[in-house]
Amino acid sequence: MTAALPTDFPAATVLGYPRIGPRRELKRALESYWNGTTTRDDLLSTGRRLREATWRRLAGLGIAVPPSNTFSYYDHVLDTAFMLDAVPDRHRAAETGAGAGAGVGDGDGLDVYFAMARGTGTIAPLRMTKWFDTNYHYIVPEIGPETAFRLADEKPILEAVEARTLGIATRPVLLGPVTFLLLSEAAPGSPEGFTPLERLNDVLDVYAQILESLAAEGVDWVQLDEPALVADRTPVELAAVRVAYERLCGLPDRPRIFVSSYFGELGEALPVLATTPIDAIGLDLVSGGLPADLSALRGKTVVAGVVPGRNIWRTHLDDALNTLRHLRHHVGTVSVSTSCSLLHVPYDLDQETELDPAVRERLAFADQKAVEVQTLANLLAQAPAGDMPAPPARPTAPAPEARWDDRSPYAARAAAQAEHLRLPPLPITTIGSFPQTGDLRAARAALVAGEIGEEQYETQVKAEIERSIRLQEKLGLDVLVHGEPERNDMVQYFAEHLDGFAVSRHGWVQSYGSRCTRPPILHGDVSRPAPITARWTRYAQSLTSKPVKGMLTGPVTIVAWSFVREDLPLPEVVGQVADAIRGEVADLQDAGSTIIQVDEPALRELLPLRSADQAAYLSWAVAAYRHATSVAADRTQIHTHLCYSNAAQVLEAIDGLDADVTTIESARSGGRILPAVASFSRGLGPGVYDIHSPRVPSADEVTGLIEAILAVLPVDRAWINPDCGLKTRTYEQVEASLANVVAARDRMLVLT
Ligand code: GLN
Ligand code: ZN
């Protein structure tokens, strides 16, 4: 084998780090800036403090050259669009600062930046969607043939200089040009067939300028993230990768270039990248395996992502070390890193003083992972040269045979349900949650803090249930809900009531912008020690003669929004959760529920990035859902709910859930999904009220959406409902909006 090539790529690194603040300082700073209670300077100084704390923390943990430009005031994809001046005209109008040339880095462009992210009173924001198969959401840039790219925001350069001023050399991280364009969408009005990737050369002009500026500032290495390369890519896209990196590597004055990939294997993109002159290449060896042919990587520094960046389990150091030694033997120069940015995990396990010690000792949050990376780099340096057999792959037992007890055919069920429920045509229902008031949140906090007792809390929850039932009756809805006031979150609530889960105190992870979630920790075998939801539904039903829908979260969603144990194959974990939910369905039915909804909004999120893996996933995911729901008798109507309208890839699977009624987001995208779901053969409720906006839709507007539904669906299978739960709206907005929904439906009934 060849001797190690000289390299100054750090022996240990992390690809990125959380940015919301260990106590969600950025969330608070953003929200108070948005509502006008603090100034731009307050926000900027919070940003500076968080960046400094991050660099010092990582340096202190042994990460010699920490990454920079991993901070963001909202989202790193938006930062990139903003940096390139890919700002739609409608958002430029929000400019209030110093005018052209002002960036986020110096704060003057913040109003335009936030207009792109959140819209203004009158201007719609850019679309937001999930970042690969994670629960992080990014802002989708709009790129057209005329987008005039230029270096409009020097944030990556300013951050590197800011760190250097503190005495810390950093490695600036940029979203790679190919991934940036692949994640963008064609700007409205672009010619048919235009794809943003056509603009690669113009985008590369700006990247070249940034790389040259970074070199002039004395930056040694730059990290370009290209996670899009782990999904299926066309020959044209692969050719773009070659063009991009040959061009950037050809710059006479540039930092050394590290291209990182994550969330899967590079596959056919590996030989392409490996034959460009890039200096280092990053592989996610946690979600993907080792490349079959390592010889292609010789001459590059391989940055081996062996410390899991997306989960919170401690790394198996022995296995990781063997992988590293094997790699070093075959390729020469190896650095140790996390498998992806640590954006997806909480900061520091040391904040969790209340966790069961037996669970805690199995965990590693971001800071513990940085230490693991450093430990592995030391172990590797001390380990003798020579090959090591690569450790066996993690348990990925073949997906279990899809098995469930079938319910009767839909026609038989529909007849039994019609007879039993006697609903009017075009029945109106909601998706489950009613507004969560400040009082309720305060009561929950007081309960956790021990300031009020269980009984007092329950009284308040019951009062909330009664309030929402009375409102639904007054409005004239047909199928009521209890409103979910007892739930802090649709996943965490179940996690708190099931065995096998733990919940953290400060384990917040950014979901988008200032929004965070605190994923439960699924650490052991899941089971249901006692019934969870039936008593609330029963109470709600005792208040009304209209049917009250029981409300459950589906097994895939519970798992997707948790940190999940890795010592059992995922389908088995989901199967255990499905068992527990099946128990809830049975209990609700026994308690007299005639309609039970099992939500699966995360069904699409777990869809594998490679098309070859998708069918197997969908088959076990659907099987789990059917296992959970097939305990329902014919006359018990099962509803499911999904809240995304770009469901194209999973439509068949949604149909396969075999729910009697499917409610789905539709109003937000103006009914674009309707043609695709028209083929569904059971009940369907495409949303007619966009609950993401505080706006109250008029009865005319809702009528238009109902007409569009009836153009593709027979009246006896159509349901009328909002796009999603009403949790984030106010009672005032909800009452006015639902009144218009009822008025529109009634108008329609007269006509049909
Ligand atoms: N039943 C849940 C609610 O209404 C569904 C939420 C969701 O789909 N994300 O809040
Ligand atoms: Zn929803």
From TrEMBL:
Domain Cobalamin-independent methionine synthase MetE C-terminal/archaeal residues, every copy: 426-744
CDD domains cross-referenced by the UniProt entry: CIMS_C_terminal_like, CIMS_N_terminal_like
Residues given in the record as L-methionine binding sites: 431-433, 484, 599
Name assigned to this protein: 5-methyltetrahydropteroyltriglutamate--homocysteine S-methyltransferase
One Pfam family this sequence matches: Meth_synt_1
Gene Ontology molecular functions: 5-methyltetrahydropteroyltriglutamate-homocysteine S-methyltransferase activity; zinc ion binding
Keyword set, alphabetical order: Amino-acid biosynthesis, Metal-binding, Methionine biosynthesis, Methyltransferase, Repeat, Transferase, Zinc
Bias (Pro residues): 389-398
UniProt cofactor(s): Zn(2+)
InterPro entries with a match to the protein in the record: Cbl-indep_Met_Synth_N, Cobalamin-indep_Met_synthase, Met_Synth_C/arc, UROD/MetE-like_sf
Record organism: Actinomadura barringtoniae
EC number: 2.1.1.14
One GO-annotated biological process of the protein: methionine biosynthetic process
Pathway(s) served: Amino-acid biosynthesis; L-methionine biosynthesis via de novo pathway; L-methionine from L-homocysteine (MetE route): step 1/1
Cofactor binding mode and count: Binds 2 Zn(2+) ions per subunit.
Region of interest (Disordered), ranges: 384-404
